[in-house]
From TrEMBL:
Keyword Signal: no
Record GO terms (molecular function): 6-phosphofructokinase activity; AMP binding; ATP binding; fructose-6-phosphate binding; identical protein binding; metal ion binding; monosaccharide binding
Keywords per UniProt: Allosteric enzyme, ATP-binding, Cytoplasm, Glycolysis, Kinase, Magnesium, Metal-binding, Nucleotide-binding, Transferase
Binding site for substrate: T125, I126, D127, R162, M169, G170, R171, E222, R243, H249, I250, Q251, R252
Domain of life: Bacteria
InterPro entries: ATP_PFK (IPR022953), ATP_PFK_prok-type (IPR012003), PFKA_ATP_prok (IPR012828), Phosphofructokinase_CS (IPR015912), Phosphofructokinase_dom (IPR000023), PKF_sf (IPR035966)
Organism from which the protein derives: Tepidibacter thalassicus DSM 15285
Pathway: Carbohydrate degradation; glycolysis; D-glyceraldehyde 3-phosphate and glycerone phosphate from D-glucose: step 3/4
Classification of source organism: Bacteria, Bacillati, Bacillota, Clostridia, Peptostreptococcales
Protein residues bound to ATP: G11, R72, C73, G102, D103, G104, S105
Gene: pfkA
Protein name (Swiss-Prot/TrEMBL): ATP-dependent 6-phosphofructokinase
Main subcellular localisation: cytoplasm
Recorded family membership: Belongs to the phosphofructokinase type A (PFKA) family. ATP-dependent PFK group I subfamily. Prokaryotic clade 'B1' sub-subfamily.
Record text on subunit structure and interactions: Homotetramer.
Length: 319
C-alpha cells in the first residue's frame, strides 16, 4: 500500500474534515502518498483528484462541512460509472480508498471492493443510522445544534403557552429526535421506528396544560409526517395554539463537537491502519468506547434497532 485516496460522500457532516485530516496525516506518517478526491464518487468518475500534503489539512479540524466537498452521484450506481471510477483509480496509481459517508456511500465502497479494489468506510453522517456503530461522525454536533434550538424555542413557546413541534433530520432513523428529545426535555417524540396515536398525544397535551404546564415540545423526525400539518391538527383537537419549526440544514453545519473531532481522528487513523495491513471491504466504527472495524457486508446487513429504554424514559420524564 503506497498511495491512498480519500473522499467524502452523501450528506455532509461536522467532523468529516477531522476524519480527512487524520487519514492524510496518518498515511503520510506511514510513508504513503495521499490523494484527495473532490465531490465524492463524482470526482472519482471525473478524475478530480489532487495530491494532499501535511499542510493541505492544516486549520480544518474545527470546520464544519467538508473541504473535499460532497455530492450525490447517480452515475456511480451504474456499472459503467464504477468502471470509469476504477480506471481513474488505476491511472492515478491509487492502491486503496477511504470513503467517509453514510450507508449509501458504504454501498458504493462495497461495490468497489467487490470489483477487487481495496476500500474502507468511515461513518460520516448526522443521522446515526448505521447499526454496527454506536455513533457516526456528526451526530453529536447535530444533537447539540438541535438542543440549542430547542432551548430557544422553549423560551418563546412558554411565553405564549404554546405547543411547539420541532422537525429534525434523520432520514429513516429517529435518533436525532429521540436523543435531542431526551436532552431537551421534550414531552412527545415521534419517530419512524415507533408508531404514534394523534389522540393519545392530544390527551397528553391537554392533561399537561391542566396540570399547569406552560408549554410542550414535540420532537418530530422527518418523514413521519409534516410538522405544520400536525400543528394544525393539535390546534383543531385541543384548542392549544401550536407552532411548527423545521430545523433543516442548520443541523448539518457548525464546528464539530470535541466528541466528533475525537472519533473522526481515531477512525481516520484506523482506516489507514487497515489499508496498510492489506485489509479491504471493512468499515470503521465505535462500540462500547472502542474503535472497531467490521466487514462492510455484515455492517450493511445489520438492522438498526430503536433504543426502547430511552424512548420509554422520555415518556416517563415528561409526565
Ligand atoms: P449517504 O452516504 O449519506 O447515505 P447517499 O445515500 O445519498 O448518502 O449515497 C451517497 C452516494 O453513494 C450516492 O450518490 C452514490 O454515488 C453512492 N451510492 C449510494 N448507493 C449506492 C449503490 N447501491 N451502489 C453504488 N453506489 C451507491
Ligand atoms: O443523510 C443526511 C441527511 O441530512 C438526512 O438527515 C436528510 O434526510 C438528507 O440528508 C437531506 O439531504 P439533502 O442534502 O439532499 O438535503
Amino acid at each position: 500500500m503506497k498511495t491512498i485516496a480519500v473522499l467524502t460522500s452523501g450528506g455532509d457532516a461536522p467532523g468529516m474534515n477531522a476524519a480527512v485530516r487524520a487519514v492524510v496525516r496518518s498515511a503520510i506518517y506511514n510513508g504513503c502518498k495521499v490523494f484527495g478526491v473532490n465531490r465524492g464518487y463524482r470526482g472519482l468518475i471525473d478524475g478530480d483528484l489532487f495530491e494532499m500534503d501535511l499542510s493541505s489539512v492544516g486549520d480544518i479540524i474545527h470546520r464544519g462541512g467538508t473541504v473535499l466537498k460532497s455530492a450525490r452521484c447517480l452515475e456511480f450506481k451504474t456499472e459503467e460509472g464504477r468502471e470509469k471510477a476504477l480506471n481513474v483509480l488505476k491511472v492515478f496509481g491509487i492502491d486503496g480508498l477511504v470513503v467517509v459517508g453514510g450507508d449509501g456511500s458504504f454501498q458504493g465502497a462495497q461495490k468497489l471492493s467487490e470489483m477487487g479494489f481495496p476500500a474502507i468506510g468511515i461513518p460520516g453522517t448526522i443521522d446515526n443510522d448505521l447499526a454496527y456503530t454506536d455513533y457516526t461522525i456528526g451526530f453529536d454536533t447535530a444533537l447539540n445544534t438541535v438542543i440549542d434550538a430547542i432551548s430557544k424555542i422553549r423560551d418563546t413557546s412558554s411565553s405564549h403557552e404554546r405547543v411547539s413541534i420541532i422537525e429534525v433530520m434523520g432520514r429513516h432513523c429517529g435518533d436525532i429526535a429521540l436523543y435531542a428529545g431526551l436532552a431537551g426535555g421534550a414531552e412527545v417524540i415521534i419517530i419512524p421506528e415507533a408508531g404514534y396515536n394523534e389522540d393519545e398525544i392530544c390527551k397528553k397535551l391537554i392533561q399537561s396544560k391542566n396540570r399547569g404546564k406552560k408549554h410542550s415540545i414535540i420532537m418530530l423526525a422527518e418523514g413521519v409526517g409534516g410538522a405544520q400539518k400536525l400543528a394544525d391538527k393539535i390546534k383543531e383537537k385541543t384548542g392549544i395554539e401550536s407552532r411548527a419549526t423545521i430545523l433543516g440544514h442548520i443541523q448539518r453545519g457548525g464546528s464539530p463537537s470535541a466528541f466528533d473531532r475525537i472519533i473522526a481522528s481515531q477512525m481516520g487513523a484506523k482506516a489507514v491502519e487497515l489499508l496498510l495491513e492489506g485489509k479491504s471491504s471493512r468499515v470503521v466504527g465505535i462500540k462500547n468506547n472502542e474503535i472497531i472495524d467490521v466487514d462492510i457486508h455484515e455492517a450493511l446487513a445489520m438492522e438498526r434497532k430503536l433504543n426502547t429504554e430511552i424512548y420509554k424514559l422520555v415518556d416517563i420524564l415528561s409526565i
